[in-house]
Amino acid sequence: MSKLTPERWQSVTPYLDQALDLPDEERGAFLASLRAQDPALADDLQVLLDEHRAVGQERFLEAVPLPPTGHPAAAGLEVGAYRLLSLIGQGGMGTVWLAERSDGRFVRHAAVKFLDVALVGRGEERFKREGSILARLTHPHIAQLLDAGVAATGQPYLVLERVDGDSIDAHCDRQALDVGRRVRLFLDVLTAVAHAHANLVVHRDLKPSNVLVTRDGEVKLLDFGIAKLLEDETGPGAPAPLTREGGGAMTPEYAAPEQLTGGLVSTATDVYALGVLLYVLLTGQHPAGAALRTPAALMKATVETVPPRPSDIVSTPTVEAGAAAANAAKRGATPDRLRRLLAGDLDTIIAKALKKNPAERYASVTAFADDLRRYLRHEPISARPDTLAYRAAKLVRRNRAATALAIVAFVASLGGVVGTSIQARTARAQRDFALRQLARAEAMNDLDKFLLSDAAPSGKPFTVNDLLTSAEQIVARQEDKDDPSRIDVLISIGRQYATQDEDASALRVLTEAYDLSRALRDRSLRAQASCALASEVSRGDDLARAERLFQEGMADLADEPEYGLDRVFCLMRGSEVARNSGNATEGVARTQAGQRELQAAPVRSALLDLRVLMDVAESYRTAGRYREANAAFEEASKELTRLGRDRTQTAGTLYNNWGLVLDLLGRPLDAEPIFRRAIEISRVGDSEAAVSPMLLVNYARVLRGLGRLEAAADYADRGYARAREADAQIVVYQSLLLRSWIYLDRLELGRAAAVLEEVEPILKRRFQPGHVAFAALASYRSRLAQEHGDLETAQRLANEVVSVVEVLRERGAQGGENLPLMLLRRSSVELAAGDPGAAAADAARALTLWQETAPPGMFLSTVGRGYLALGRALAAQGKRDEARAASRSAVEHLRSAVGPDHPDTLAALALAGAGAPS
Amino acid sequence: MESSISSLIATAEAGDAAAAETLFTELYAELHRMAKRELGRRGVAVSLGVTTLLHEAYLDMAERTGPSFPDEMRFMKYASRVMRGLIIDHARNRQARKRGGQFEITSLRTDAPELAVDDVELTRISEALDELATVDSSLAEVVDLKFFCGFSFAEIAALRSVSERTVQRHWEKARIYLHGSLRGSSLL
């Protein structure tokens, strides 16, 4: 068949090359000159050039072997309930067809988008299922997903509401909208995204071509959640693929840093993309500027370089004067005026949305929108501008290694580098596993982050409980009961309920998660379910079961390094179990083990570190190690502020616990504002319905300590009422004890006695004899007796109390840290009974105990009262100088810790001044 | 099996025809298995998925074998040839089904134009390609990669470490050859 031998081909081919390089008209001359040298060769070349012309005319081999659905032949193809009419276009992800319903039911046209992506390893079922979840997303500004399925040709498709419009940047430019109008249009986009987030759908691929504006000026968002439909089955929040088939790789102009470095994708990722969009809409330029030229440079800039301020780039000399003026004109301004419009608040808002660290961005799209609205109303915005130091540091050094890895993989797939190195792939696989584990850990936080965002999704006031209920409903709607991600979410919801002290709901949800997880082989999930349930159960009575569940969880994880983060979670829960069982030392040991485990983890997360830090602080607190607890809380509080999360419910919990530590430590004056802050955060408008009863009682206790008895009584009553409503037994009795204490302070002895009567049966039902609660009860009765003048009873009770608490202290059990307080109680009785020597001894011992755990240089109410009691006892013994010295120390401490006007401070002053001027 | 493919490639490169045969068979089996699993049983639109399939196949095998596995370029040379075979076989199946009367539930409307390239034509192209491979193998490879597997010029350029323009030129020349061969030119 072939007469062209390889040798002849080799001879003629270089001439063919030359000829093809020439334009048509010159080829004749070239042939002619060749013919002069070698006629046979020229003949061959002639034939080849003729074929070349024919190839061009016939478009030989330009068709593909089998028709994809991009081929016109596919018109008329029936896809689901729709019939394809005509090809609308070629999107980034595949071809789009205009379609109508084939059953003639509605007149409405739809767009059928075929996805040019191989379902490698993904199931058809899963695609359809995810699609049906997305189809429930309904919003006037979101193009409705009508159906999702897989065509007979094997290609996945989506049926969407047909939207006829321009991309938002083109629309704004065409209409020459000014800054204000652009922002208002942008706000419409934000409401749509916020709605989707409220339904737990993240877009992941927001860009102008996905944000259309119809001729009526209505915004329509396309392709919501599509990126999620296409991700690997590696679980929720896994890194989404950046490359696409057919149309070549996608340029990541709107990708957030974490998408490029393979980090967790969350609602914050959408916030970033929206930030870039706003940047472009307002300035006409991309934040990466010149780096836009190549994908590699763009990626590097996205991950590493803080973008220039919008106000700076609209009028800088580097932009050609003409371009700057044209840009500004499209925004209804001159370059100078535009700069002035953007400077200040808009700069700050955009900068916050574009933070490299997702945790530093707006916590929710709604928060983003709120600040924009404030800007429009000329109100102060909530975002704080960056400090000079931050802006000066243009490189974010943290993720250098990750950046390098991601760039290699991405650029390789673009074809810029030969192949993907095998080493990179293996390392990536290992990192992927670690990241998946972290993603699971963070998914809990992610749901929390969503739930704990600053404002309600619908703009109405809400309580966290409302949100949890709706989250539960969303989860229940999912059909696949065994879906691991469902269990993950259930665990997260359950733990949120627990934070709200909604123990009944928490128990219900966590039990469901536990039961479902038994059928799985996913050890990390099983362990998390066991341990989450363990800590909830330990809030009730069956402490043995709680401990068993914890051990079960730990056993499931064994010692394998890949489960490090799960072990951290379990140890934290185990620590709670230990604490609730009264074993404070074991509680501390477990949190410390968890912290060590966390520090050894291959990937870190600021949020997770924070969570663990808070648990560590808690365990120190319940172990009575207040100094360490205080330090940990302070660190955690700074971290919260740094992460911009200091107005969230998590912060509320932190402040509550920290306040408690400060109160127990003896710094009620410091504790008071912190408690107030915690209450403020939990309040919804004027309603206290969402404030934890425990928090109210803690605050009451501090107020009592500061001598503000009326306010203290008020809060104690409110705490009691809330506790009864929520059936929070612990808080009920605590509030009662506090109430009686306040009555005692006010010398309303009858009322005090009545309350003590009320609380005793509650304690008997809940606790074994020997529990510190009975000691507290007895100490109040001792005081009551003393006020009545019954010193014998008072002494007897005080002795009992001291011995009980001594035992607790020796065993390292909860409540043992109250010993010095009980010693002071007894000292007071002894003083009244006329035994100042014993009084002095008890006071001295109490003082020593408190000073042992006191942070150096800190003035504490505890130490102050110890000195005061000692001073009184010494004065009664006639040791005037020593008494004065003790009293002066008392003044020093009390003035700082409870204020100069507190009765105790005044008493100490009086004692110090007695007998000689100071 | 992966290590056998690895050594087969090496031996085939050295000119061992028998090794080349075995390599073809083994790769065919492997890719066929993957294609069946991932591209669906009801048919395939070739512009999607194949390049991913091949990349994935390469990465999987390379990962399992280790650093001694040949680089992607060499792998693609053979794999794309195998893919050609798979696609032609598949096209034959489809045509047979259509002609044999096994219709699928949803079908093209009867007035739609026929497929541009049918399986007979594909087979002839394949034979001509085999011949072209003996004359200038790099041209045949481009056709396998671009026409049968759907790689873009940019991707092919990257795989072979040449410029896109070079790849385009190879494509031009390959088409010239094939066209002449198929249309019964006196020379080709």
Give a structural overview.
The complex is a heterodimer of chains A (918) and B (188). Chain A is mainly alpha-helical. Chain A is built from 40 helices and 9 strands. In chain A, strand 5 and strand 6 (156-161) form a beta hairpin. In chain A, helix 38 packs antiparallel against helix 39. In chain B, 72% of the residues lie in helices and 0% in strands. Chain B contains 8 helices and no strands. In chain B, helix 5 crosses helix 8 (164-182). Chain B is globular, with a radius of gyration of 17 Å. The model of chain B is unreliable at 38-48 and 97-116 (pLDDT under 50). The interface between A and B is large, with 67 and 75 residues.
Helical fraction of chain B equals over 70%
H/I helix tally of chain B: 8
Quickly count the helices of chain A. 40
Instruction: Please compute the radius of gyration of chain A using only Cα atoms.
Output: 36 Å
The share of residues in extended strands of chain A comes to 5-15%
Basic shape of chain B: globular
Rg over alpha carbons of chain B: 17 Å
Sequence of secondary-structure elements of chain B: HHHHHHHH
Derived from helix and strand composition plus strand pairing, the structural class of chain B reads mainly alpha
Low-confidence stretches of chain A: 66-73, 118-122, 232-250, 388-464
Distance between the termini of chain A: 122 Å
What is the mean predicted local confidence, pLDDT of chain B?
A: 69
Number of strands of chain A: 9
> What is the chains' assembly state?
heterodimer
Low-confidence stretches of chain B are: 38-48, 97-116
- Overall average pLDDT of chain A: 77
Biggest sheet strand line-up of chain A: 1-2-3-4-6-5
What is the distance, rounded to the nearest whole angstrom, between the alpha carbons of the first and last residues of chain B?
A: 40 Å
Greatest interface (CB-CB under 8 A), with counts per chain = A-B, 67 and 75 residues
User: What does the main sheet of chain A amount to?
Assistant: 6 strands, antiparallel
Structural class of chain A: mainly alpha
